[in-house]
Amino acid sequence: MLSRTVLITLVIFIFSGCVSEPSPVEQKAPRPAWVDQPVQSDDVYMYGIAIGENREDAVKLALSDMVSKLGTSIESKFQSSEESQGGYYKATHKNSIKADVAKIKINNYEVLKSHRISYREFAVIVQTQRDKFIIGLSNSLKKKASSLEKELKQLNTKSTIARYNLSKKLYEKSKSLYSDVIIISEVDRRFNKTKFINFIDSIRDRFYKEKNSLNFIVRGDRNSQKFVKNIEEFLANKGFNVSSRVSSSTINVKLKTSANIDSDDSIAVFNIDINVKSSIDKIGGNSIVLKERYKGSKNSVFKNASIHFEQDLKEQGINEVLGISLDLE
């Protein structure tokens, strides 16, 4: 009986020892006033405030906060400028400007204050000098403009399609330049944007000049007429000029088709030879073979071949079919 009592006592002692003490509730430090009542950016400094899981995370979030506030301010000022200047700035640029502001990287900053609120909460406030920030943006803008100027000088050395492709590429690049100009002009009223706006406009005008002057003449022999029409319609739908006008920017597309249609054979074979030339030299070409089921009607078999040729244009693209490199994006 005594041994049984000792055993029960021992079991109770073991199990009572396994019960863990409740962990103490983590005590949070009071939030500093600057977290809930943040200092506002002014003409000298810009600020960003955030709380993260650690100091490094909090700094990144604070820099994002700084950029976000900048974007809101620029968007508001841009909207006012757009209204007061009668739409001088196109509304279509508004979203791209907002997106480009979000891409801004701030390197010259310092952590002004930091505070650990709890084990997984760290608050920081970062600041950057507005002048240094503006200088960084201005230097980046000048570098981009200089690069575009160098590429512009290469245009006149290019062949017809290469000249069009490069002018389009530069036009697309210049759009981001516009956002940079607006961003800097909104944070620095001393900045003269006219020079850069005129430069951007000149790139746009050059592109449209190249596009409007680019002209396709598509010709073919008697067997190629339906295929000629397919190519003309495709190019016209892409916004290119298709006419018989000859100029230094003319692209000549010539088709020659041999049609092997035998009444004793159920398959008709079309060999389409495509030759593409600029005003001075050959710039492309291709050979295409189409096979169609022949049921005794030449009109029907030519029509079916034309339908399949049109499908090839849509699926493979004009570059693949004609053997050229034309920027259609």
Q: How many whole angstroms does the radius of gyration measure?
A: 35 Å
Question: How do the strands of the widest beta sheet line up side by side?
Answer: 5-4-6-7-8
Shape: elongated
Span between termini? 95 Å
CATH class membership of the largest domain: Alpha Beta
The residue fraction in helices comes out at 40-55%
Order of helices and strands: HHEHHEEHHHEHEEEEHH
Q: Main β-sheet: number of strands, strand sense, barrel status?
A: 5 strands, mixed
* Helix vs. strand class: alpha/beta
Q: Per DSSP, what share of the residues sits in E-state strands of 2 or more residues?
A: 15-25%
Number of helices: 10
**CATH topology type of the largest domain:** Double Stranded RNA Binding Domain
Which superfamily, in CATH terms, is the homologous superfamily of the largest domain? Answer: Lipoprotein like domain
Could you walk me through the main structural features you see in this protein, from its secondary elements to its overall organization?
This protein has 329 residues and is of the alpha/beta class. The chain folds into three domains: 33-130, Endonuclease I-creI (Roll), CATH 3.10.28; 132-212, Up-down Bundle (Methane Monooxygenase Hydroxylase, Chain G, domain 1), CATH 1.20.58; 214-322, Double Stranded RNA Binding Domain, CATH 3.30.160.150. Helices cover 51% and strands 21% of the residues. It is built from ten helices and eight strands. It has a five-stranded mixed β-sheet with strand order 5-4-6-7-8. Strands 1-3-2 form a three-stranded antiparallel β-sheet. A hairpin with a 2-residue loop joins strand 2 (110-118) and strand 3.
